[in-house]
Hints:
Layout: E1 4-5, E2 10-12, H1 20-23, H2 33-40, H3 47-50, H4 57-71, E3 74-76, E4 82-89, E5 98-108, E6 117-118, H5 125-138, E7 140-141, E8 145-149, H6 157-163, E9 169-172, E10 178-184, H7 187-197, E11 202-206, H8 208-223, E12 236-243, E13 250-252, E14 255-258, H9 265-272, E15 276-281, H10 287-292, E16 297-301, E17 306-311, H11 325-328, H12 331-343, E18 357-360, H13 363-371, E19 377-380, H14 386-395, E20 405-407, E21 417-418, H15 421-424
Parallel strand pairs: 6-11, 8-12
Antiparallel strand pairs: 1-5, 2-3, 4-5, 4-10, 5-12, 7-21, 8-11, 9-10, 13-20, 14-18, 14-19, 15-17, 16-17, 16-19
Helix pairs in contact: 4-5, 5-8
Amino acid sequence: MAEILPIKGWRYHERFTDRIEELTSPLFDVVSKLQREALYENPYNSIHLSVPLGEEPALHAKEVLLDWKTKGVIVQDQLPGIYVYYQYFRLPGEEKESCRKGFIAQTKACDWEEKIVLRHEDTIPKAVNDRIELLKATQFQASPTHGLYEDPLHQLEPYMDKAIEDPIYDFDDYQGVREVLGVIHDAEIIKEFIQLIGERQIILADGHHRFEGAIAYRKEMASNNPDHSGSEGYNFHMMYLTNAHSKDLRILPTHRIFSQIEMEETEILEKLRPWFIIKKLNDVGEIEELILQKKWAFGLVFSKNAYKIRLIPEKINEMPDRFPSTVRELDLMIIHYFLVDKVLGIPLEEQRYSNQIEYERNLRRCLGKVNSGEASFSVITKEVAMTQVLDVCKSGQTMPQKSTYFYPKSLSGLLFASIEESEFKFPYQVFQNDTID
């Protein structure tokens, strides 16, 4: 099953420890334009590696990386470790603090077809290509993808709890989340992590584009290496692993914003009526509460009017037979099939390429873009349940792109991982009962 290794991590030099909050950055696919502009002003912020500037951004990242290594801005830990990563947070309206517990390790970038790492949503090709170019140029990873493993007995948690008592970092990030990083170097304990994950599949929660880029890079490198063994650095990818059975694993909704739609509001509503029950709302602020408890219900927001729309239950039978029940009954599949495909005329297979669809977690920004005329309308959605994610992954199917928003997001720059062979190489057999293939 899944193969992991400890990481010979790269981190900011200890002289930067007190300023680590200024050097970390949001992930490449969630950092806003305003955040980017502010972060770029710091010459040592990790955004220069994760979302590089310039006409040739990958080349720029390579130059920055070499400069940082030469100047000792970042340094490599000589001993591989399992990096324990805890995130403490509160969601609006909650008094109790939650803690998402996990650890960061190198994970083998297995092909999807091997069914060792399972995906749950489609990717957007341009974002994958950008990640491949960046990985080719730097052989360096500025942030981990997020994977889930199933451990109902929480067997690894005592080791993690102990390690986090003596953290490397402990600070509040841009989300208001308390970020704590510790490390485990004990070889016997690391064996426990490797063995448990080695008996599991991994469900990819966040970072589909980066992981798909890692797969493509591994294939290219392997095909050009006549002595390929499977143990080279290019076979691995940095991943933050959390327990799917944790009570503090949260998924937030990702709304849809539509632009350059030529149909007027009245025409869209008329085309929706064969499939949806439509109710006009007096207050757009009611949308999230009104759709929360209803299956296949959504908010539909235009510049002057807002509606609650709900699929007529028997219309589910008009979904094509090629979709199994685990997928066809998902809220987001309903909206992408009936509204985006049937009403707007953007076929399902083309939607992930479309520049007319934008994905936004923040409800206020959705409403703002519609009210300003920047967007034609937006669809307000509900969160996807963790059980649905697991069911879809295990069925071999995928959800529409940007179906889930696992919260909180991990950070870029907290820990770096190199897959350049001289920096990756280590006798990892000491952490295993058997040598790796």
